[in-house]
Amino acid sequence: MTGREILLGVSGGIAAYKSADLCSKLVQAGASVSVVMTESAAQFIGPTTFEALTGRPVSSHLFHPIEHFRGEHIGLAQRAELFVVAPATAHFLAQAAGGFASDLLSTLVLTATCPLILAPAMNCEMWAKPAVQRNVQQLRADGVHFVDPGSGWLSCGQVGAGRMAEPVEILTAMQRLLGSL
């Protein structure tokens, strides 16, 4: 991962705490990481955590030029070699599958030309819904890569599929994909 430019998207789910671990693992592996958070993600984990891990500002607004004066959705997309969204919530999957650009993270899905990996995380009943599975199928057909959720205890107290993959699994998938480019 040394010298690789990674874009890490964090959408609003309880599994966002695992994204900090993924971010740390990426930095320790030598990657340069830019983090984009949705407003709801910031309800679960603060941007300061990611800023401390990456040494870079966290982006969350379309036209708030921190480093990219063309707009964050252009500058971040042009720089990234790989884009991963972890967690990818049901809401985010619907935005991405439908091509909606309602915030910086969903807009980046449309502007980035690098490979995209999604690591879904949600309640087991949500993950099983036909609408969510249709969105996943559409995204796969569009060439998006997935690190599928595992089964286990969920924060809602249920046990089932929907638990975000462990950061080491996501990192392995990222390394595999970058190695094939």
Rg measurement, Å: 15 Å
Shape: globular
Using the 3D structure, state the CATH architecture: 3-Layer(aba) Sandwich
Give unreliable regions as ranges: none
What order do the SSEs take from the amino end to the carboxyl end, as H and E?
EHEHHEHHEHHEEEH
Distance between the termini: 13 Å
Q: How many distinct domains? A: 1
CATH superfamily: Flavin prenyltransferase-like
State the helix count: 8
Mean pLDDT: 91
Report the CATH topology name. Rossmann fold
Structure description:
The chain is α/β, with parallel strands linked by helices and 181 residues long. The protein has a single domain (5-179), classed as Rossmann fold, CATH 3.40.50. 42% of the residues lie in helices and 19% in strands. It has eight helices and seven strands. The protein has helices at residues 16-28, 47-54, 72-79, 90-98, 104-111, 124-128, 130-141, 167-179, and strands spanning 5-10, 32-37, 82-88, 116-120, 145-146, 150-153, 159-163. It has a five-stranded parallel beta sheet, with helices on both faces. Strand 1, helix 1 and strand 2 form a beta-alpha-beta unit. Helix 1 runs parallel beside helix 2, helix 1 packs across helix 8 (167-179) and helix 3 (72-79) crosses helix 5 (104-111). It is globular and about 40 Å long. The mean pLDDT is 91.
Keywords:
alpha/beta; Rossmann fold; globular; 42% helix; 7 strands; 181 residues; five-stranded parallel sheet; two-stranded antiparallel ribbon; 8 helices; single chain
Quick structural overview:
The chain has 181 residues and is an alpha/beta fold. It has eight helices and seven strands; from the N terminus they run βαβααβααβααβββα.
